[in-house]
# Entry
Amino acid sequence: MIYSLEKINEMADGDEEFIKSVVAVFLEEVPQDLDELEKALGLKNYDSVYKLAHKIKPNVDLLGMEQTREIALTIETLGKKEENTEEIERLVPLLKKDVDQVVSELKNDFKI
# Structure
């Protein structure tokens, strides 16, 4: 398991509906943002790459996905500066792999 509900549990203070809503938002938004990020990368639109990585970062952070957060942060930083684009192209599939795995785990764990 590469995610943790620790941060969400602290925020939720026992509110199961809140936890479910955070998970639902993650499942709805992050895969969509990732698809957009891949499209932006294909178009070499690094401003959009930066913005989408910036948007994904707090969502993966909220789920305690520290390594994934670091990947998103690196993509964000490189996209903003439009530098080392080869590294961005190397990292985006790793980000996608992590997100896809967590989406699968969350759907299974929350019976969605």
Summary: The chain is about 80% helix and 0% strand. The radius of gyration is 14 Å. Residues 16-42 form the longest helix (27 residues).
